[in-house]
Design a protein that fits this description.
The protein is mainly α. It has one domain. The protein contains 14 helices and no strands.
Length: 298
């Protein structure tokens, strides 16, 4: 469990810093960045699998397992595409809201699908967050769709990672990325032939950054996949507020995004919900350790 928590913290720290990386590519079309993420990720992962001699594991997967991982890959496509577009369109704060909401959606999925039990205080936390999102929707006058798409797609992805034990995190991520790598590669070839692709026309710096999208994408996801196999889905939900906290601060203090009073009230309610949830989880964990010690003494 300790190793799982360490891997999870590392993944969310990396994701928290990613807006700084994507902003370096804000002159590149979001769809082209997304295509590069898939192509360079599959190359990076293929090298790792070849070094570890694990291709036999990938090719031995059953058809249902591959289809399950491909579905996870489609969820990643939705999440990545929305995220990149939002970052480079000046919506970093709303992306942070999405990942603030995500832990609580993960909790709900854990309860509904995996039959994980929640304490009354944790249900209170979920209710407070729902009220906060509802308040923002009513007061701002529009549904925070970017936040909801990001939260929903990644919560479902986390659920699939939690319940899929057919293959290790590196191999599973390779299959997930492969679901759209062919059309992504074709899109980049077409852009290059038309002379509109940023990989060459954008200069050496842009070329290097696009090539690094594979590393920036795959490393945190591999860490997350490894963590998801070792710790509870609800624990993943607690760790996840690391990334949106960093994204919120980056959006407001680095890129000077404006936050209205009504939006801030909604954010504060979500933060209170996360605080209630975290305190409750820590209290329960402490009680479980005390009970375990008592049983050991007997």
């Amino acid at each position: 469990m300790n190793r799982g928590i360490g891997l999870g913290v590392g993944a969310y720290l990396a994701w928290g810093l990613l807006p700084l990386f994507w902003k370096l590519l804000d002159e590149v079309d979001s769809l082209e960045i997304l295509a590069h993420r898939f192509v360079w990720s599959i190359l990076f992962l293929s090298v790792i699998i070849a070094i570890r001699h694990r291709w036999s594991v990938v090719t031995s997967l059953t058809r249902p397992a591959v289809l399950r991982l491909w579905f996870a890959g489609l969820l990643l496509t939705v999440n990545w595409g929305t995220y990149i577009w939002a970052i480079n369109s000046g919506h970093i704060v709303q992306t942070s809201l999405g990942y603030f909401i995500n832990p609580l959606l993960s909790v709900l999925l854990g309860v509904v699908i995996l039959r994980e039990r929640l304490e009354p205080g944790q249900w209170v936390a979920v209710g407070i967050a729902a009220i906060g999102v509802g308040y923002m929707t009513v007061r701002v006058g529009s549904l925070p769709w970017i936040a909801l798409v990001l939260a929903g797609s990644f919560a479902l992805y986390a659920l699939l990672k939690k319940t899929s034990f057919a293959v290790g995190p590196i191999e599973s991520l390779t299959i997930e990325v492969s679901v759209v790598v062919a059309p992504a590669f074709g899109f980049l070839i077409a852009r290059g032939l038309a002379g509109t692709g940023a990989f060459v026309a954008g200069g050496l710096g842009t070329t290097a950054l696009l090539a690094l999208t594979g590393v920036a994408t795959a490393v945190p996801l591999m860490m997350f996949g490894a963590a998801a196999h070792r710790i509870k889905l609800s624990t993943i939900g607690i760790l996840q507020y690391i990334a949106p906290s960093m994204q919120f601060l980056i959006g407001v203090f680095v890129y000077n995004e404006k936050v209205t009073g009504d939006e801030l009230i909604g954010f504060i309610m979500v933060w209170i919900a996360l605080a209630v949830f975290t305190v409750n989880m820590m209290h329960r964990s402490r009680q479980e350790r005390i009970a375990a010690v008592a049983v050991g003494d007997l």
